[in-house]
Amino acid sequence: MADEVLCAIADGVATVTLNRPAKRNALDRAVLGGLDACFEGFERDRALRVVVLRGAGPAFCAGMDLDELAARQDEEADPEAGVVATLRRIERCRHPTLAVVHGDAFAGGLELALHCDLRLAADGARFAMPLARLGLVVPFALGQKLVEVVGPAMARQILLVGRPLSARRAYEIGMVHEVVPAADLERASDDLARAVGEAAPLSLAGMKQTILRGLAGREGIEHADLDALAAQARRSRDAREGIRAILEKRRAVFRGE
Q1: Tens digit of each residue's pLDDT (9 = 90 or more) over 9-48
Q2: Across-strand partners of 16?
Q3: CA dist., res. 145 & res. 155, Å (int)
Q4: Are 190 and 198 in contact (CB under 8 A)?
């Protein structure tokens, strides 16, 4: 398994840690591969009760690795397809999943938390989807998940405005289930994981499948045209400018081309 993703299992609880603190735990191929390996193994572990997902360093996850994304902008294949596949694997995990968000969860990092069953946040955590500031369009499956969790009105604000939401505001709109002081996050995480882990495994698995079946209709929505729009935006001059501006820590100048 990649050093970028750490996994420890004790007393029926698997703790998965994104381990790129210098890159704010940005998602690159190594991280996605590490997450895939972890969750593939969890499917075979019947002694496991709950999976806790967290990040090392000050951020939970800053989203896609922009250096890697910039290098792959001209590829025919969607460089974000791997993110979508990994997040779907996490969502469909047979075991309950808990995202423990202590710092910023932006873009793909926010989606990583949204694809977990439960979300616990420290009071200083922030949540955002600033893709429009990069000249990018959210992949359909990820935009769909955002609408599913917070509803269309708040999804419009999050996607079109792009400003970070505080943990308290995220709680108010149903994005996270609980907010606690940062000093209490570890205890609250342990308590919640234990509460879930003490429930009957067959009941938990059945209820997860019931929820996923209730959402199954979303799989039949045609979105090839939206995928084409996302691909067009990804290859645009604005996207190159947006990503370059973020890496160079300056304001982007967009021209609509």
Answers
A1: 999 999 999 999 999 999 999 999 999 999 999 999 989 9
A2: 7, 53
A3: 10
A4: no
- Looking from the CA of 23 toward its CB, the CA atoms found within 13 Å total 17
Tell me the longest C-alpha to C-alpha distance in the chain.
56
Residue-wise over 73-108: b if at least 16 C-beta within 10 A, else e? eeeeeebbebbbebbebbbebbbbbbbbbbbbbbbb
Domain ranges of the chain: 5-197
- Global pTM value: 0.93
Structure tokens at 218: 């979303």
**Which among 168, 186, 154 has a CA at the least distance from the CA of 52?**
186
Q: Characterise 131 by phi-psi region: left (phi > 0), alpha (psi -120 to 50), beta (else).
A: alpha
How far apart are alpha carbons 257 and 250 in whole angstroms? 19
Which option is the CATH number for 5-197: 3.30.70.20, 3.90.226.10, 3.40.1000.70, 2.120.10.80? 3.90.226.10
